[in-house]
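Sanity check

After download, print the first record. It should look like this:
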Amino acid sequence: MSSDAPPRIGWVGALLLRDGRVLLALRALHKALAPGRWDLPGGHVEPGETPEQALWRELAEETGVDAPADPAAAVAIAAEFAFDGVILRLYAVRDWVGEPQALGDEHQRLQWFEPAQAADLPDLSHPRLGELLRRLG
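Expected structure tokens:
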């Protein structure tokens, strides 16, 4: 791989939006990355997956929601952040099938917040998440 190759999208995250609120996930205390902090559902893009496929797979695994009939129309890129040559792409998700619930061992719980309220949480996983949430409000 040449050094001037564009960074690949390695992680995806979801801003699930409903009735003017955003869903955040409280990370489990045993997790190495951001334990006990509010974060977005999401995760790694696996080899052979598109970022959108990874998004819907991660949402199913972590929250139990599935893609709607037209998954492409349900999402929009909300932000991208580069870390160590890899991109984290965040999607605004406005349509899905099912009711979100905390599944697996990634998160202790899920909670809906007003964007401004979420942006002011002292225990967000990353300062840039607060900036993004403020823009939603």
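If your output differs, re-run the checksum step. Summary of this record's structure: Residues 17 and 94 are 5 Å apart (CA to CA).
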